[in-house]
Sequence to fold (126 residues):
Amino acid sequence: MKQLCPCGSTLSYQNCCNQIHEDLSQAESAEQLMRARYSAFCLELIDFLYQTFHPQTRRFQKKAEIEIWAKENNWQELELIKSTNSTVEFKAYYIDMQGELHIHHEKSTFKQLNGVWYYYDGKMKA
Ligand SMILES: [Zn+2]
Fold:
């Protein structure tokens, strides 16, 4: 049986975010990269998460912190609210270590560099 992609696309993982996880230049839009980043949290692909930070913001990131955030939370579902060319607003549902359900509501900004999409930064929404 094929594994469905964690991003909720209803495609198999092989035909969806896996292609971007293997080669991040495969993301053709900000939304595709956003989905692949969510899937990477589900699958604990820490290097991918780190690599998809835009070089200008990556230096503020710590792999160990990304790893804790990915592993301590149990990622439930991704809900896309609104996408534009360079932004994606989404809600990510997760259960924390205390068993409480949370909603991470963010508007992310993405930028291209040499034709490759990167996550630039995000603003939390109330
Ligand atoms: Zn996917």
